[in-house]
Amino acid sequence: RMYSLYVLLFSSLAFSVYAREQAVGARGTLMCGQQPLANAEIKLWELDTWPDPDDLLATVYTDSQGRFQIQGHEAEMTQINPVVKIYHRCNNKGLFNLPGLCKRKVSYEIPKNYISAGKAPTKFYDFGVLNMEAKAPKEATECI
Description:
The chain is mostly beta strands. The protein has one helix at 2-18, and strands at residues 20-32, 35-36, 41-46, 55-61, 67-76, 82-88, 102-109, 116-117, 125-131, 140-143.
């Protein structure tokens, strides 16, 4: 019994020693054709491998001009794998032609060189201006 307690204590200590805080951030402007895409939901995820579940780091919404800025941080032993997921209704045919029922979902991996040590990003990945009208490769639909 004492041996397993030592193993558990040592493993948790090892994790706290080797896990390092890492931060990432992104910004951009979303358009729907010529119009700013206001109120699109932006989520910053840190993808993990099984059995560790993915971590939601932050959620923001685009402003009236379609602009967003998002940032988050996570303590991991290995380098984090950040992904920005955009949920929107631009050019959305929807389920059964009911456009309000579902949102289009597009995912973008953030390049590793935008990950910084600590709890605040030192640089932001800039998406620039994205027109969300066209269907993206590997795009998904998320309903309700």
